[in-house]
Fold this sequence. Notes:
5 helices; elongated
Amino acid sequence: xxxxxxxxxxxxxxxxxxxxxxxxxxxxxxxxxxxxxxxxxxxxxxxxxxxxxxxxxxxxxxxxxxxxxxxxxxxxxxxxxxxxxxxxxxxxxxxxxxxxxx
Length: 102
């Protein structure tokens, strides 16, 4: 089975509301060479820290985990601009003041 077929099966399962285990999703992402780890994101922890305007700590790890989860759902979001938009959403949901640096 090629990676395109596997990806289509995942998309179909998601479309019909079928749950997909995290382990299964990880295997598919590895096969497809899609972002799977924080190092695969289009921005790094330092950029997240600067964009959120906060000090190093747990919140930065939470933000990166949030970004990775979003990118696992939709890999087209793995661009610096899209990730910054997601960080704004993350910051607002965590009642943070996000300093927008474009």
